[in-house]
Design brief:
The chain has 311 residues and is an alpha/beta fold. 42% of the residues lie in helices and 16% in strands. Bound molecules: nicotinamide-adenine-dinucleotide (NAD) and 2-amino-3-ketobutyric acid. 2-amino-3-ketobutyric acid (AKB) binds next to loops. It comes from Candidatus Falkowbacteria bacterium RIFOXYA2_FULL_47_19. GO terms for molecular function: L-threonine 3-dehydrogenase activity. Belongs to the NAD(P)-dependent epimerase/dehydratase family.
Length: 311
């Protein structure tokens, strides 16, 4: 079989996607890469066009999951790097894919939507004129993928992920990161200072569902996909206050305080919920975790980590 390349594989999604794909296809068929050093991964900077092309040819790559990116909060602080990695990095990957005829997965985000959409949940086909640098790179990425699909007949698929909550790898500089950090602080110190206001509602999802959805979309028959770049994906929405109340059911002494910072403005520009009916219709997407089961699972896993006294 042709091999599967994952870029940005040391990140929040990549670290869990790699294990999932290894289980299905075997370690030999998975080429995990990142710009940062990670045990067992190859070093690959997606901005190094020649290195990307060489690796794709030399390793006989047939499928690429392109996860390397700069997330929203980091992107506002360093727009130059974000534009470079998210736009030029994607372009390098698509060019390598075009030459080697690879199938490609390119993640998008709830960040693509225009602020203040008139209809919530945000429909699949909505206005995508974001006012954050990250959102702009993601909206441009969706268009570039559609261009390569139409112009070069490449099979490129994508998902607009909501904020992802996971227990394996720390999130990498986004606005929804609070929804992961809060569990670690709740277990370690019993207190969390949230950088978003208490009533900021955002769409979220538990990582096992996001990984399942990703692999499911990549396995779906092409002819069934009305949209490619990219499908809305949803599970549940909540505010920091609602998350704190849910955590308190498991850790009664937990307290939260609020100190909104610059990330509030980013969150305010995103929709509170998105409509994923086309994903459910076209490739049978259905999340396994709801809000309550996600919180119970996260608390239990974080409590059982060795650094928190578990084994
Ligand atoms: P992350 O920040 O955790 O990981 C990104 C990885 O990319 C990092 O390991 C980083 O070292 C690597 N990277 C950065 N610059 C690179 C370069 N030049 N070359 C190669 N690697 C480079 O991000 P993530 O959460 O795993 O997100 C993966 C993708 O999913 C991104 O496109 C992101 O926009 C999208 N997404 C994530 C979420 C989420 O909540 N995690 C939500 C929506 C969309
Ligand atoms: C971020 O907060 O930047 C990401 C995202 C929703 O794209 N988690």
């Amino acid at each position: 079989m042709k091999k599967i390349l994952i870029t940005g594989a040391a990140g929040q999604i990549g670290s869990e996607l790699v294990s999932f794909l290894v289980e299905i296809y075997g370690r030999y068929n998975i080429v995990a890469t990142d710009i940062k050093k990670y045990p067992g991964y190859l070093s690959l900077d997606c901005l190094d066009r020649d290195a990307v092309r060489y690796l794709v040819a030399e390793r006989d790559i047939g499928v690429i999951y392109h996860l390397a990116a700069i997330l929203s909060a980091k992107a506002e602080n360093d727009p130059e790097t974000a534009i470079n990695v998210n736009n030029n990095g994607l372009y390098n990957i698509l060019e390598a894919a075009r030459r080697a005829r690879c199938r490609v997965f390119v993640p998008s985000s709830i960040a693509v939507f225009s602020p203040g959409l008139p209809v919530i949940p945000a429909p699949q086909e909505s206005s995508t004129r974001p006012d954050t640098i990250y959102g702009m790179t993601k909206a441009w990425g969706e268009m570039l993928c559609d261009y390569y699909a139409a112009r070069h007949d490449l099979d490129i698929r994508g998902i607009r992920y909501p904020g992802l909550i996971s227990s394996e790898t720390e999130p990498g500089g986004g606005t929804t990161d609070y929804a992961v950090d809060i569990f670690y602080q709740a277990v370690k110190t019993g207190h969390y200072t949230c950088f978003l206001k208490k009533n900021t509602k955002l769409p979220m999802m538990y990582m096992p569902d996001a990984i399942q959805a990703t692999v499911q979309l990549m396995s779906a028959p092409k002819k069934k996909l009305r949209f490619k770049n990219a499908y809305n994906l949803a599970a549940f929405s909540f505010t920091p206050a609602e998350l704190a109340r849910a955590i308190k059911k498991h850790i009664p002494e937990f307290r939260i305080t609020y100190k909104p910072d610059s990330r509030q403005k980013i969150a305010d520009s995103w929709p509170a919920a998105i409509d994923d009916a086309p994903a459910r219709q076209d490739w049978n997407w259905n999340p396994r975790y709801d809000f309550a089961t996600m919180v119970a699972d996260m608390v239990s896993i974080v409590k059982n980590k060795p650094e928190n006294g578990g084994n």
